[in-house]
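Risk register update: the risk of archive-format incompatibility is retired. Evidence:
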Amino acid sequence: MARRELEEYRRRGPARTTRVMLDAIREVLGTDSAVVGRTALDIGGGVGAIQHALLAQGFGHVTSVDAASAYLAAARREAETHGTAQRLSQHHGDFVTIAPSLAPADVVTLDRVICCYDDMPALVSRSTALAARAYAVVLPIDSWAARLAVWGQHRLAGLFGWQYRMFAHPTREVDALAHAAGLERRFYRRMGIWQVIVYGRTG
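Archived output:
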């Protein structure tokens, strides 16, 4: 799967929602020059679409955390082809478990990750705590269709023995945790079944 997704990324680039999120991060930070030398933490970044884009924009360093070693290897290979591997650090494991060992970053990103994790409060509270300037997420909209899709996925997972599960966490609960961490919404866009939200640090 990692190989297929890397090939798809090389053909088409980041997904549309990812591109919108990347543009919004630059907007929230202020100017294009404001990203130069910044740091980022990308949680569950897969083949590294966000990581490669931020490093190309001038970010000084990006840290990646992923529970799948195959995705980390694919992201590393792609970074090596771009000559940015020396500015990329990778950690293998469950972010919630290893979060205490990670340093804060200017920007923290979770692109379609919150909907893949059962303990949303732990994931969001620990990741927002590490966001020094901006916190960017892509997650499903709150709708009966999303909840039905999750129910169907769980039924299929039980039938075929899949380990992967989707979750429809309420956006208002994600918002509440972000606000409690001192973050406020600076960007919002709904894109089909997805919503792109970027928070900025208050004050």
